[in-house]
Design a protein that fits this description.
Elements: H1 2-30, E1 32-34, E2 41-43, H2 46-53, H3 55-87, H4 91-102, H5 109-120, H6 125-131, H7 144-168, H8 172-180, H9 185-214, H10 217-222, H11 230-241, H12 244-277
Antiparallel strand pairs: 1-2
Helix pairs in contact: 1-12, 2-12, 3-7, 3-9, 7-9, 8-9, 9-12, 11-12
Length: about 280
Amino acid sequence: MKQVRSMTYPYVAWISVMIVAPMLLIVLYAFTESGNDVLTFRFTLDNFVRFVTDRVFLAVLWRSLAIALVTTVICVLLGYPVAYAISRLGERANTVLILLITMPTWVNMLVRTYAWMGILQDEGVLNTFLGFFGVGPVPMLHTSFAVTLGMVYNFIPFMILQIHTSLDKLDKNLLNAAADLGADRLHTFLRVTLPLSLPGVVSGVTLVFLPAVSSFFIPKLLGGGQYVLVGNVIESQFLTSGDWNFGSAISLIMAVIIMLSMYVTRKADVSVASAGKE
């Protein structure tokens, strides 16, 4: 037992330094304002009041939630058919296709986003292709379309992998039983496959929505600074304005929203799993 405890010490130290300490500093800055002395802090709620009473900041928050929701919905609509099709193939084809889906994630997300800038610009690959048909150039870069496309491209592998894992674990005997009872493919999918795969969908929603709502470099690069999300506001408060107190307050608000989202998805996951067992 002592040996097991001693093995956890490095992890506890790492979590304390890299996660707990920064979060405590964010809380400290969010609920205080700096005095003339750097080490002097005064408790205040003005940072939170400033955010919730400013229509500009609230509009940015709602825009962030909206684009994260749209990204999640698109990832579900595109990711589920892909995951379902892959799960219906043989083991070898499964392995190859899952490998192809995960390969882009081996490249840094920032590099992949830069690549989309080259594809979507007026002289880029996509507009060059459209030019062969006498169309364009169509302005796509620095638009909401570009931001949504970048979000979906970067996060859809997580959705596909979660749904595929859920479908891959599905007991095939249940499908055979449904067929023996006279259910066609559509009814088997709606009554058996879909309900039992919903935990994977819920997990995928969590892995897509949470990073999408707080992303800052995708809208910065593909939106060109014209499509500001809450992540960009936090970044500007820390790096440009130097208002760490207000930036920490926004970060804390987003942390609460993310934790509430995780709680809701967790409850939904438990409910879906219980319904599936019944």
